[in-house]
Amino acid sequence: EMQVVESGGGLVQPGGSLRLSCAASGFSVSSNYMTWVRQAPGRGLEWVSVIYSGGTTYYTDSVEGRFTISRDTSRNILYLQMNSLRAEDTAVYFCARDRSSPGPFKYFYMDVWGRGTTVTVSS
Amino acid sequence: DIQMTQSPSTLSASVGDRVTITCRARESINNWLAWYQHKPGKAPQLLIFEASTLESGVPSRFSGSGSGTEFTLTISSLQPDDFATYYCQQYYSYWTFGQGTKVEIK
Prior knowledge:
The structure holds 2 protein chains of 2 kinds. Chain A is mostly beta strands.
């Protein structure tokens, strides 16, 4: 069974740092596109970052330059390093595996999700 | 960013009701649209991809339709387990979600 489990959330002061982890089982993190999505309190889902199987990374504008997505192939873990945290980064952070559409056109959507880990940025 | 707009934001319905949720994209996304179900404290669940393809294991009472800029998710006969929040998501250009539709008990 494919599964991802997030960890590493907590309370941090504005300007602080936190590293989230996403442990995968049943599939290889390095062979798949992997994504972080967040949900702020009372808000909907927001895409945060993706890492392609080849290593290319992308970020939503609001976290560009502050967050870094990476992976540990040997441990099969996805990470999100979050620096210079702001109150508006407060959210539940979800890790997800991306799957490509069948057929010749490769577009990716999320098919395996975790339950999330809560990040609270507050003084 | 491709903005996605869902309606309604909240929907009150009874078990057995037919429920329809609409999702509109600000520009054409062909059929690169997914629907997810999310319950508090749980992992979001993929229901439909490519606008109308049912994910394996998802009950057949769920269906999706549309292409271009307008899409719908239909639950043919609402069941107790279906009370949740539903999100559409475009994956044509990066990824953006609709704001969600909460389906609550009437």
